[in-house]
Amino acid sequence: MITPTDSTGTSEGSTSPDMAGISLERIKQRRDFLHVAEGAGWQTPGFILQGRRRTACNREGLIRIGFTCSRKVGNAVVRNRARRRLAHAADIVLPHHGIPGWDYVMIGLRFRTVSRNFAKLTQDLETAVRRLAHKEMR
RNA sequence: GCGGAUGACCGGAUGGCUGCACUGCCGCUGGCAGUGAGGAAAGUCCGGACUCCACAGGACAACGGUGCCGGGUAACACCCGGCCGGGGAAACCCGAGGGACAGCGCCACAGAAAACAAACCGCCACUGAACAGCUGCGGCAUGAUCGGAGGUAAGGGUGAAACGGUGGUGUAAGAGACCACCGCAUUGGCGGUAACGUCGAUGGCACGGCAAGCCCCACCGGGAGCAAUGCCAAAUAGGGACGGGAGCGGCUCAGGCCAGUAAGGUGUCCUGCUUACCGCCGUCCGGGUCGGCAGCACGAGCAGCGUGGCAACACGGUGCCCAGAUGAAUGGCCAUCAAGAGCUCGCAAGAGCUUGAACAGAAUCCGGCUUACAGGUCAUCCGCACUG
Which of A50, A72, A84, A134 meets the CB 3.0–4.6 Å disulfide criterion with A105? Predict the structure, then answer.
């Protein structure tokens, strides 16, 4: 019920000219995950978001995003599904609401990441991004 | 038709929109096309392939595994066929199924007794005592009670298991003491490749169970694993080789300023000289972390055909190429259709609505085993009922 509007939203976002300066990249190195984990965190009903501004910001318009779903989330099928949902939500939200120059990590939770309504999952991500920015200011 | 047994199979289909990974192409911030999970991909329990290490001669010891027979296989703890034992009315199912005179050990509870014989309740005759009975008064083919010294293991009861079983002869009562059948042991014939079966003879019961307690016997096994292993190789630091490399000022009254610098150390005390060494600079070499590439998908491969074989399987020829990621792709939604399930209406045929799902995700690759699994399909067989 929500996904058709979501999918058209992403297609508009990726092709819109005002978002041309922002690009997304996946975090794959363990030391990057550990670096982000030292920053601020915010728990939502569907996941935990960690975020940190990169110190050596060589590329200004870049947002990096990583996903982690440990074995506590469930078996392999459930883990893959949780990771895909988080990645999809990040593709929708971060080009609009993410702060360039930041690294984010989304952590999946047992049962809740998979069962959470997807529209609410995207809203959670928006508020979490704002909260992290607010925490960083203080 | 109902109930059951066994074996095999499927694990929604089609279309659209939109994502992801890899490959190829193009007019390359992108676009197009192709391909993209399973029967268990799982558990990581066995067996291999392939690497490296060790030994390069295998054996012995230790440790681990396997354990009826024959066959299949690269190999196996797997598969096929058979044997034996147990279960079932049957189809069929289950079985770590070698050795208990090589040795050690154990046999709880119950029971009299648990391994070498014995005897609790019993049964039996003998004998002694007193009592009763009978008497011809000497006693007794008498009855029951108590004691003594024996015989016996049939019956009772316990147990997973009790020193062969059932029936008879026999006896005081009994007992393989004897007989018949069965079991057992030894032995011979026949059938079978064999496990084993079968027929007979002899013996006369001796030799309890547990080897899934240790053990013995036979056979098998060197160790570690794709994060194996090989190649390429940046920055930083460190190692080695070769080469290079000698400077000491000026201004200002002073404070200070300008210029230059790796310019300093070691060598028997000092001075001078020298580049002998370190530190310094350059070039090269080797090791090596992150990373990249190979290993890595044409293989004990898949489909169907033929031949041999009861079968597992083998052989032959035909066709096909079918995931390859590395914080790890293969997803989501919609529509239509289909097996099935539920509810309502209906005598029924049927109609309407809802649902349309399980276990679960490749990670070097194969052969197995085990475990999980919504719903469904097919074949063969057994029993019962019905029809003819």
Answer: A50
Question: Residue A134 above 80 pLDDT?
Answer: yes
- DSSP one-letter string for A28-87: --HHHHHHHHTSEEEE-SSEEEEEEE-SS---TTEEEEEEE--GGG-SHHHHHHHHHHHH
> Which one is predicted more confidently, A21 or A120?
A120
Residue A7 pLDDT more than 50?
Answer: no
Please, which residues have CB within 8 angstroms of residue A70's CB and are 6 or more apart in sequence? Answer: A108
Q: Is the CB of A72 under 7 A from strand B?
A: no
Give the distance, in angstroms, between residue A37 CA and nucleotide B126 C1'.
107
Which nucleotides of strand B are protein-proximal, with an atom < 7 A from a CB? Answer: 17-19, 37, 327-334, 360-362
